[in-house]
Amino acid sequence: MIEIERLSFRYPGAGTGVALPALRIERGARVAIIGPSGAGKTTLLKLIAGILTPGTGTVRVDGITVSALDDDARRNFRISRIGFVFQELELLDYLSVYDNIVHPYRINRVLKLDRQVRDRARALAEHTGLGDKLAALPRELSQGERQRAAVCRALLTEPDLLLADEATGNLDPANKLRIIELLIQAAERNRATLLAVTHDHELLPLFDRVIDIRQPGSPRAE
């Protein structure tokens, strides 16, 4: 599902970046990525999603060399094939929960917002306990509810690849477990691959594989 070869990336004017000799993640795997702050975990997810492009090396997702696509093609691929739960959530303050969930369908022509998608959005909200919050604005929600809204948005396209960047950060234990279980259940239901960055080692037993990017013999960051 994910194939990375001789990957390197550095932010302009900064000493931090990512260097990965090779990384393979099979389809349907549930993988956690751990490592200290600043190790490049978020950068790695953004390289896989095509939000960033590597300085050298290749990133392939489901046989497509994402790193070789132009900006428009990478954006279309990401929106249609990848569900991304951002660490900052990136909910739009002026949109309701419902409109935040369906927003990807309104900003990209490769997605069609039809009745089936609208019904799926409402079903996801019901399943995550947000059925009575669809008209609410993000500022009216708890942190856990905002996290769940971001997860619903990521799951709406039924993506082949789910990327979660600290999706359980700043949540209480019950909500942490609920968010991870939602992602795992969605991945299993759609036979999708789940790649999650986390600092919470209590959640690691829920994953098939753990990658420590600072551990000798594992993919590493600089």
Automatic annotation (TrEMBL):
Give the Gene3D superfamilies listed for this entry. Answer: P-loop containing nucleotide triphosphate hydrolases (3.40.50.300)
Which keywords appear in this protein's UniProt record, sorted alphabetically?
ATP-binding, Nucleotide-binding, Transport
Under Gene Ontology molecular function, one entry of this record is: ATP hydrolysis activity
GO cellular component, alphabetical, reads: plasma membrane
Span of domain ABC transporter: 2-221
Would you say which domain of life the source belongs to?
Answer: Bacteria
Which InterPro entries does this one have? AAA+_ATPase, ABC_transporter-like_ATP-bd, ABC_transporter-like_CS, ABC_transpr_LolD-like, MacB-like_ATP-bd, P-loop_NTPase
Q: What is this protein called?
A: ABC transporter, ATP-binding family protein
